[in-house]
């Protein structure tokens, strides 16, 4: 064990693996030793910095015994991008999710409640009207904040 250091490789799911390496080993050697075949997909982060230079030694990066290197296995560029030729024509349209429709639906509901407030005043008390004004102002700021960017 003389001349070796232990480096903790921490993954996104909070699991850890202990790597026994030499301080003279490079980032590329560490990747190829512990992640064979996945070197190009593996990203190392140490002290908030992405370790991109594969030729840098662990000593030059101030990685010492029991340091933590965060590991992220990214998808390959070819697998992450869909094939435009193989994609069906229906998939090329814009997708609509329920989250993107929440603000417009709430604004339409507020408009209907305001219509009822104006035409059926006898059913709305003063606290209900004040609450309706507050909710309208809140959602107006929310809508302008989201769509005004």
From TrEMBL:
GO terms for biological process, alphabetical: ERAD pathway
Record's GO cellular component terms: membrane
Alphabetized Gene3D superfamilies for the sequence: Phosphatidylinositol 3-kinase Catalytic Subunit, Chain A, domain 1
Pfam families found in the cross-reference section: ubiquitin
Source domain of life: Eukaryota
Domain Ubiquitin-like: 5-78
Membrane topology: Multi-pass membrane protein
Transmembrane segments: 96-116, 123-147
PROSITE patterns in alphabetical order: UBIQUITIN_2 (PS50053)
Alphabetical list of InterPro entries matching this protein: TMUB1/2, Ubiquitin-like_dom, Ubiquitin-like_domsf
Location in the cell: Membrane
CDD domains linked: Ubl_TMUB2
Sorted UniProt keywords: Membrane, Transmembrane, Transmembrane helix
Name assigned to this protein: TMUB2 protein
Gene expressing this chain: Tmub2
């Amino acid at each position: 064990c003389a001349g070796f250091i232990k480096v903790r490789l921490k993954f996104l799911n909070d699991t850890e693996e202990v790597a026994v390496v030499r301080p003279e080993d490079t980032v590329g050697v560490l990747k190829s030793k512990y992640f064979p075949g996945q070197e190009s997909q593996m990203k190392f982060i140490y002290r908030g910095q992405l370790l991109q230079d594969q030729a840098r030694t662990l000593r030059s990066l101030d990685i010492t015994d029991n340091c933590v290197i965060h590991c992220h296995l990214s998808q390959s560029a070819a697998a992450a991008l869909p094939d435009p030729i193989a994609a069906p024509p229906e998939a090329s349209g814009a997708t609509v999710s329920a989250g993107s429709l929440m603000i417009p639906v709430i604004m339409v509901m507020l408009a209907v409640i305001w219509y009822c407030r104006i035409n059926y005043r006898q059913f709305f008390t003063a606290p209900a009207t004040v609450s309706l004004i507050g909710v309208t102002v809140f959602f107006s700021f929310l809508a302008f904040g989201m769509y005004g960017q």
